[in-house]
Design goal:
The complex is a heterodimer of chains A (383) and B (382). Chain A has 383 residues and is α/β, with parallel strands linked by helices. In chain A, 25% of the residues lie in helices and 25% in strands. In chain A, helix 9 runs antiparallel to helix 10. Chain A is globular and about 65 Å long. The two termini of chain A are 33 Å apart. Chain B has 382 residues and is an alpha/beta fold. Chain B contains eleven helices and 18 strands. In chain B, helix 4 runs parallel beside helix 7 and helix 10 packs across helix 11. Classes of the chains: A alpha/beta (383), B alpha/beta (382). At the A-B interface, helix 9 of A face strand 7 and helix 10 of B.
Chain lengths: 383, 382
């Protein structure tokens, strides 16, 4: 497949006119005037080509009460125990449940799927394609990170059962204690293995970054202090209450994943300071824009957050990486997708206009790994 | 006196913009609108290269009455509570009104929730002003009703009517029947006080609906909207179809004089089985093209106030003209909530609810609200 003469927004801040040669689902070559006799030619003259958006934290493909015949927990929400680092979100992912949402029609090609914020340690995250059937074939990266949380939501769930955590004291005490035990943990003959500690060991060994959800800056400060003795990769999720003057975040170069504010009836979400975060971003901090990971996630979330950022930064070249290459990098798939570069997956979307500039932008075609998963005019499915 | 000079003005009375001035009088009204207005004694706001539009009107919201577990607009002790009145459920000083202002929303229709089949009266309130009474534009503006999973979900859990859509339709029709009979008896026995039916506040609240002075405002998704139109025809009342996901399946039924308007949104989820199973922003253009009054809503604080403009933008993505989309959330919304005598367009004699942007906000995603006036008073944008 040869895409001719599109205006390419590469997701890393560059915009240029060029051709894109796609072979076996990969971007083979980017150059003007490519000739390829045996390729399907797609005329993208006057069109804008963007990388597929990447929602870093999502619950697409997760079944639960809202989608099944019996009331039950969502499959990424094992709230029988607040410490479940040994669980793997890949076993929760239903390919068809993700596909039915037609995320390609909203410009998404690849998503991070994550356990919820309702456990101190929820389990490992994974990265999936948005369209397919078999979860293992759709999986772009297993073990993208360890999901952790110090959020109040946890207390609401366990506290109501009169079990820990009822307070933030417990949450932070256990954050310390679990990592202390994981550090000291050794597999010994004749001794029962501890799968939880083995999972956390992978964080300490820097195999997995720790994606920690916070309610406010003090949460982040406490966690940072506790984790300081260990050399781990920390990503702060939600970024509520992080402001331009949160200099320590910049000094320690801790990436942020902004959760959409679509959950407004949350006093912590009301502390989202996009202006302040934009300032940190302009000083060089990695910031990704994401939706929520509850049942009430919005398919437009990443784009709408991008639009909110456009109102502050007024520059599409600055905003697009927050929706593409930066989430890819944080999820550990930056070498595979998230930008339009030679050697990357052909996760790209041809738009009629730049969706970060005008609402009149429509998707012409969404290619996920070179496969057209949505074309303008396709009917949006109904359940 | 205050004058906004040299702005690109979209009055929304006319669809094409013009470059001109707006004169705001001290009583908070638009005194004049045109070119080169005399301004000797007026304070001046320079709007050169700016876009000047009416304040946004949110035709379906609960701000000031709902926040997390604090709930003053859903009296779910009985599925039929027409005697309730949002007037008593709203805290006009709630911070959510500041958020509304920062999103350009100057007027909101505030209504009971959807836990009950009949929820009570709604009101229309400005986002800012000297007092609750000053801000109150319309009371009552509608009688709120709900169909589908919300009332079903509440009462199924209690094994009470209505556990089904059959039960909901029965309760709706039964209430309207009782109001009609109450009115007939009151008329018949006007001169015989001992035969007059006993005063019933719940039935009294239904009288303006039967008289077609206010619409029944119905929380409705997908096939339930055909039920609602059918009931509207049966009782010859006006209805608004609120939420309206799946409206594009029922254009024929919605093109009906009993349908006062369709209030689409908010988009707050992916697909669900059942009534949330179709999301069709294209219905905004589809209904508009067919002459049905259509707008979008925030349902605040269920979804945030900034979703009003994003949703208008999504209607544009689905083919609507950006100026028509602006019309949806100004003029059309004001007509649907019966306040077009005061707000919704920039015209002489109307309230000076005016916004200034650096670009047309229903077209340009990066457009930013720079200044806003409500009743002629500039309000701080948070």
């Amino acid at each position: 497949m040869l895409i001719k003469n599109g205006r390419i927004h590469d997701g890393k801040g560059n915009v240029f006119q060029s051709d894109i040669l796609v072979q076996d689902g990969m971007i083979q070559k980017i150059a003007p005037g490519i000739e390829a006799d045996d390729s399907e030619i797609i005329d993208a003259e006057g069109k804008e080509i963007l990388p597929g958006f990447i929602q870093a934290l999502s619950a697409w493909g997760i079944n639960g009460s809202a989608t099944e015949i019996r009331p039950s927990a969502n499959d990424n929400d094992e709230t029988s125990d607040p410490v479940t680092p040994h669980l793997d979100v890949r076993y929760a992912f239903n390919g068809r449940a993700a596909t039915v949402q037609q995320l390609g029609a909203f410009g998404l090609c690849v998503i991070g799927v994550t356990p919820t914020d309702n456990n101190l340690f929820g389990g490992t995250m994974a990265v999936f394609e948005v369209d397919g059937v078999n979860p293992y074939k759709m999986c772009v990266k297993p073990y993208a990170g360890m999901k952790a949380s110090v959020c109040k939501r946890m207390k609401d769930i366990y506290g109501k059962r009169n079990t820990a955590p009822m307070t933030k004291m417990w949450i932070f005490e256990q954050l310390q204690e679990q990592f202390r035990q994981a550090k000291e943990y050794k597999v010994e003959d004749g001794k029962e293995r501890n799968m939880k500690l083995e999972a956390l060991r992978r964080v300490l060994d820097k195999e997995l970054p720790l994606f920690l959800s916070i309610d406010n800056e003090q949460d982040a400060l406490h966690a940072f202090e506790i984790l300081k003795p260990y050399d781990i990769d920390l990503v702060l999720c939600n970024a509520y209450d992080i402001h331009a003057d949160s200099a320590w975040i910049l000094e320690n170069n801790i990436p942020l994943i902004v959760r959409s504010s679509s959950m407004t009836m949350d006093d912590n979400a009301m502390k989202l300071d996009l202006k302040g975060i934009a300032e940190l971003y302009e000083k060089g901090l990695d910031v990704a824009l994401s939706g929520v990971d509850s049942s009430f996630q919005i398919r437009e979330d990443v784009l709408w957050l991008g639009i909110a950022m456009m109102k502050i930064l007024k520059d599409e070249k600055k905003v697009l990486p927050m929706m593409t290459s930066i989430p890819a990098k944080l999820l550990g798939v930056g070498d595979v997708t998230g930008s339009i570069e030679e050697g990357k997956r052909a996760d790209l979307v041809i738009w009629s206009a730049d969706p970060l500039e005008t609402y009149q932008a429509e998707i012409i075609t969404t290619y996920m790994g070179g496969k057209a998963i949505y074309r303008k005019g396709d009917e949006l499915r109904c359940m | 006196m205050h004058v906004i000079k040299n702005g690109t003005i979209y009055t929304m009375k006319d669809s094409s913009p013009f470059k001109g001035d707006i004169l705001i009088s001290d009583d908070g009204k638009i005194k004049a609108i045109g070119t080169d207005l005399g301004t000797t004694d007026a304070e001046i706001t320079d709007a050169e290269e700016k876009t000047v539009i009416p304040g946004f009107v949110d035709a379906h919201s609960h701000i000031g009455g709902v926040w997390m577990e604090s709930e003053d607009l859903n009296e779910m002790s009985n599925p039929v509570t027409p005697e309730m009145d949002s007037y008593y459920g709203i805290d006009p000083k709630d911070k959510q009104f500041e958020t509304a202002v920062s999103c350009g929303i100057t007027t909101s229709c505030l209504i009971p929730g959807s836990g009950n089949v009949i929820g009570g009266w709604g009101i229309v309130l400005k986002s800012s002003g000297d007092s609750f009474k000053d801000r109150l534009l319309k009371h009552p503006v509608c009688l709120k009703a709900a169909t589908g999973i919300n009332p079903k979900g509440v009462y199924s859990g209690r094994n009470q009517l209505p556990m089904t859509r059959m039960g909901i339709a029965f309760l709706l029709r039964d209430y309207l029947r009782r109001v009609k009979e109450y009115m007939e008896k009151k008329e018949k026995y006007r001169d015989e006080p001992d035969k007059m039916p006993p005063y019933d506040l719940g039935l009294e609240h239904g009288i303006p609906v039967i008289e077609k002075k206010i619409p029944l405002k119905v929380h409705t998704y997908m096939h339930d909207m055909v039920t609602v139109v059918d009931i509207a025809r049966e009782f010859d009342i006006l209805v608004t179809i609120d939420h309206a996901q799946g409206a594009s399946d029922f254009y024929d039924d919605l093109c009906d004089p009993h349908v006062k308007g369709v209030i689409f949104g908010p988009i707050s989820a992916g697909l669900f089985p059942g009534e949330g199973g179709k999301i069709d922003f294209e219905c905004c253009k589809g209904l508009h093209d067919r002459g049905v009054k259509v707008t979008v809503m925030t349902d605040g604080p269920v979804t945030p106030e900034n979703l009003l403009i994003y949703q208008a933008g999504e209607a544009v993505r689905k083919g609507m003209d950006p100026v028509d989309a602006l019309g949806m959330i100004t003029k059309t919304a004001s007509e649907i909530i019966l306040c077009d005598d005061r707000v919704g367009t920039l015209e002489e004699g109307k309230d000076a609810d005016i916004q200034i942007y650096d670009a047309l906000p229903t077209l340009y995603t990066s457009a930013v609200l720079e200044k806003i006036w409500i009743n002629g008073k500039e309000v701080n944008i948070k």
